[in-house]
User: Which sequence fits this backbone?
């Protein structure tokens, strides 16, 4: 009975709040990460105590999903966004600055 109710509730949520296109979802997670660093410049909490790992995992999942949906040799909009906005370089810089010796 409970699982049936949960299933019905999940379908209602999906109907009321349709999923975002992959690129919008990808950008949302990236902005959440950058917002954290902008808003908490003095906070020295370990990254594992923040939502950053979850956002990074979501971004990776989106890239994998996008790759599966594309034909071989095509670059999707999320990968283009990652490359154009130099996300990997930014993550490297943020991580390097966050390491204390």
Assistant:
């Amino acid at each position: 009975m409970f699982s049936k109710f949960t299933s019905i509730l999940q379908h209602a949520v999906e109907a009321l709040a349709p999923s975002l296109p992959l690129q919008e979802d990808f950008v949302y997670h990236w902005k959440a990460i950058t917002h954290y660093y902008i808003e908490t410049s003095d906070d020295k909490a370990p990254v594992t105590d923040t939502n950053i790992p979850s956002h990074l995992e979501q971004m990776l999942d989106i890239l994998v999903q996008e790759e599966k949906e594309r034909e071989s040799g095509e670059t999707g909009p999320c990968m283009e966004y990652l490359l154009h906005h130099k996300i990997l370089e930014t993550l490297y810089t943020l991580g390097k600055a966050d390491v204390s010796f």
Summary: The first helix runs from residue 2 to 16. The chain is about 70% helix and 0% strand. The chain has a mean pLDDT of 82.
